[in-house]
Amino acid sequence: MANYEANYTLGLPPGSETSKPYPLLLPGFFSTRGEPLSVFKCSVKGSCPGGVPGSCSGKLVGLACFHCPEGYFMQDGSCQTCEPGRVILKFSLIFLGSFVIITLMHIMGNWPIAKGSEQVMIAAFWLGMAVTVGLTCAVYATLDMTWGLPLPDFFRALQFLPGDLSVINIACLLGSTSSVSVYTFKLLFFPSACVMIYLGALVCSALPGCRLFAGFHGPALQNSAGFLMSTIFVAISVMSLEGFRCMQNPNGKDTLQTDNTVICWGGDDHAVIVGMSAAAILLYPVSFLAFTAWASFQFGPLTVKYGILFTSRVRFLSSRMKPDCVAYAFWWNARNFFIAIVPVVAAGNYGAQVFLFMATFLAWMVTQLSRCCWRFPVLNMLDAAVSVTHILLLCLFALLASAEEGIDRTSVGWCIVSLLITVVTSLILAAVLKIVLHLRSKIVFDLFITHHKAAAALYARHVKTVFEGMAKLTVFLDVDELDSLDYIPFAVQQTRRLIVIMTRDVLRRPWCALEIATAFNHKIPISVVQVNDVAIDMTTSFLEGVLDSFQPADLKMLSIAGISMDDLRSSFFYVASLPKTNLPLSTPDVKLNESCAQEAVGEAFFRHVKFLFRHVKSQPVVAKEPEKLVYIVYDSQNDLQASYAYMLYHLLRQRSWNVHFMCSIVQRPEILKPKSVCVTLMSKGLLKDPIALGFAILVQRKGIPLITVVSHEGYTSLDKHDLEKMEAGTFWSQDELHKVQEVAQNSDEKELFMAFTSLHEVLAWQFSPQNNRYLMMQEFKIIEKRAQKELTRQTMIEESDRSSSLARIFSTRSDRSNSSVSHVSRRTSVELDIAIEKDKRLERKLAERGADPYDEEADCDLDSFGTVGTVENEFYLRPQHSQS
Question: In sequence order, which ranges of 71-217 are alpha helices (DSSP H)?
Fold first, then answer.
């Protein structure tokens, strides 16, 4: 370079006849005049024209032509004069736009559950995914790769996402191009955004129309800060790692990617920036990951301990994931942090960077698909699609690094750009579509049943069964539909009519109050029903007492959900003014139940539903199979047992059983058929119900097999003293015995005692229709399977008896002619073989459990029925008594 120094000293231009030759720089590279052979790579397009060392385009100055002189700002690779008015206007517009967006985010992130919508929540998560995809693409731009067209221009357009402040003319705003000053301004973005959240909530709380949704309290503000951090976590992580993000140059030196004038690990500016980055990493990503790990992994215990005060602070974690998968909210943030850190930990190795990215997305996709952790199913599918898109992009990135000739790098680049634009646009359009669907307010449920679970869980199931049996209705019952209580307000808003089962404490339950107030606020019709003529006198004093009974925690939960005390008062007094319809659920009369249910919601409701489903083929009525005959015995004096009987009747009829209640048979005992099954609901009051006891005697006389069923009602065994009184005939009064004899003619105390104790000699099966429908159906299938086995057993015994009769007939006809004997013997031999085979099959089936379950010696005794033993849903109900 001695020639360069000589020419520079003499002022000879390069290329002239008198100048001496020396190396010139290529476009895109820079070297100083003092060290012309120490070449740096320029990151700003068009800033370095090449040629003579120290050459810069468009008034650019500094190392690698990265800065503009004071009073100028960079735009499109050249320096433009700063105009203070224009800069202030631009910054003000950006600040105002950010303020509005962050305030809207705060309102939507803390939108009351009672006013929320599943569609809007899905739309918000899709927009969040779109932002994450854009930020991830901005991270791809920092990979150690020389991109071909059109990727440089595309990635340059995304650089504002991870914190490129040139869009706001930061040099004019700060009056300095110092890298430390610019980095300090970047690190203050998140605290400034938190201040905007506070100011936005403050402004909303001062506006009458927005005050209800302002969320101007600690939990809401903390949740919004977490939601904002989670949404832009990739950008915050990239910003915090800025001091460690360096780019390699041809001279072997590294310069800071965000400021090419700072040489990494070689100057005071970089030392300061590294210190600030280390502090930022601890303050932002590390502390946020630590908090989310603590909150998500301990979500259950912390919720129990702190209640709504905790859950409202971490809704940004729990709202996106299913209740049993809240921990995956932490792993989602951890994945995003790893995306930001990959270019740093694998700096200078493009292949390793692509491999780590691909491994990250593959691991997340496999984990996510195996658990389906997102709250809504559509989010699981979309997240998997986004992961597949990233994997395809990384495959294209690997193709760009291939040394094979014939690969059109421009075409590959356009494929990458097209794929990214398609995915982001699809996410945004899908979110807009979801919002449009929400505005159309699609109805999902025809009826919503509000009830107090402790007092009316079984009645709620009974009411749902009645309505579903009347028409093609979709009835919401929380125990069947919910994984989380968050769904309840959404379901209420998407319901045609709310039915309140009015019991004494239903209005005192916070969630029931939330359902009623939500329906009232959204003008959803409400029907009030009372069960079995149990009326609640809803006077003004009663309602005021109910309103006063809510605890501060209940009121806070309701207020966060957007329900005020005025809303509760208005909705409760409105419900009190509505007519009450009585549902006689104590009478398992199908026609009567359906008639009262239709009265509760109005005939016009059914006409409207039938009109909506006029093009839908109705389900055919299940035909009865005469040979599948079953009788149901229950305590007719107990309302709960009547509901259990109705539920069994409904489920058996759906499976084509020919079902009869005992009350329809006692008037005509002669129609009782031996080839049938008797299902008896065991309860405390059964031994005092004359109808049930009389029917038990009739069943015993006919030799009908018994199946006993135990509900959730506790059942206690009789003590030895009561059993002795039964055996002696002194347990039942003469009046009770007379009523029993009206059902079972010519019965006595001994026959009654044997019929009653026979119920305790067989297995009892659990049946709990007040639980989840899936569990209820599992229990019912066991009962039905047992009933079917009893019918099969009877059929096999009949065939065995018929075969024995045929054998006897054959032996009495042995003196007939040879031709007749030959004909009969052939036929009888075949029938006997079939009968013997069936008899053996019967013995094998009865020996599966080691002994005949109907033999008294075969049953296993428990120490006492007070501690019920269960094996696969089985209960032994044998009381302790001596054999009579």
Answer: 84-109, 118-140, 151-158, 170-174, 179-187, 189-206
Q: In what order do the strands lie in the sheet containing 246-248?
A: 246-248, 254-256, 259-263
User: Torsion over CA of 796, 797, 803 and 805, rounded to 10 degrees?
Assistant: -160
CB 522 within 8 A of CB 498: no
- Note whether 583 and 532 are within 8 A (CB): yes
User: At residue 787, what are phi and psi to the nearest 5 degrees?
Assistant: -65, -40
User: Residue 809: which H helix or E strand, with range?
Assistant: helix 773-812
Six-digit token string for 151: 């990727």
Residue entry with tokens 């459990």: 849
| Rounded distance between C-alpha atoms, residue 556 and residue 226, angstroms | 21
CA atoms within 13 A on the CB side of 400: 26
Query: Distance between CA 21 and CA 263 in Å, rounded?
Result: 30
Q: What is the dihedral of CA 245, 249, 254, 257, to 10 degrees?
A: -30
250 preceded by a cis bond (ω within 30 of 0): no
Mind listing the pLDDT tens digit for each residue in 643-695? 889 889 999 988 899 898 888 777 677 778 888 999 998 888 888 888 888 88
Taking the C-alpha atoms of residue 827 and residue 607, their distance in angstroms, rounded to an integer, is: 61
Which amino acid is it at 155?
F
* Structural domains of the chain, ranges and CATH numbers in brackets: 1-81 (no CATH), 84-439 (no CATH), 445-612 (3.40.50.10140), 626-810+826-884 (3.40.50.10140)
Q: Please state whether beta strands 763-766 and 874-876 pair in parallel, antiparallel, or not at all (unpaired).
A: antiparallel
DSSP structure class, residue 616: S
Q: Give residues with Cβ within 8 angstroms of 500, minimum separation 6.
A: 450, 451, 506, 512, 516, 526, 527, 528, 529, 575
Q: Residue 242 and residue 139: Cα distance in Å, rounded? A: 12
pLDDT score recorded for residue 717: 64
Q: Judge whether 352 and 343 are in contact, CB under 8 Å.
A: no
Average pLDDT over residues 176-188: 84
Q: What count of other Cβ atoms lies within 10 Å of the Cβ of residue 252? A: 8
**Across residues 440-456, what is the average pLDDT?**
81
Residue type at 30 in one-letter notation = F
Q: Decide: 512 and 506 in contact? Cβ < 8 Å.
A: yes
Those residues with Cβ within 8 angstroms of residue 157's Cβ, 6 or more apart along the chain or in another chain = none
Q: In this prediction, what percent of the chain has a pLDDT beyond 70?
A: 79
- State which amino acid sits at residue 384: A
What's the start-to-end Cα distance of the chain, in Å?
123
**CA nearest 709: which of 743, 725, 686?**
686
Tokens 């969630």 belong to residue:
511
Residue of higher predicted confidence among 158 and 414 = 414
Distance CA 282, CA 32 (A): 37
Q: Which of 387, 138, 125 shows the shortest CA–CA distance to 231?
A: 125
Using an 8 Å Cβ cutoff, are 169 and 272 in contact?
no
Determine the 3-state secondary structure of 75 from DSSP: strand
Query: CB-based contacts of 732: which residues, under 8 Å, 6+ apart?
Result: 726, 740, 749, 752
User: What amino acid occupies position 646?
Assistant: Y
37 vs 6: CA distance, rounded Å? 15
> Please, which residues bridge with residue 248 across strands?
254
DSSP states along 617-628: PPPPPPPP-TTS
Structure confidence at residue 404 (pLDDT): 56
Per-residue burial over 439-473, b = 16 or more CB atoms within 10 Å of its CB, e = otherwise: eeeeeebbbbbbbbeebbbbbbbbbbbbbebbeeb
Q: Dihedrals φ, ψ of 500, to 5°?
A: -105, 115
Q: Do residues 563 and 513 make contact, with C-beta atoms less than 8 angstroms apart?
A: yes
Tokens of residue 693, six digits: 């006891």
Whole-model pTM above 0.70?
no
DSSP secondary structure code for residue 64 in this structure:
G
> Would you state the pLDDT for residue 817?
42
Q: Are 381 and 426 in contact (CB under 8 A)?
A: no
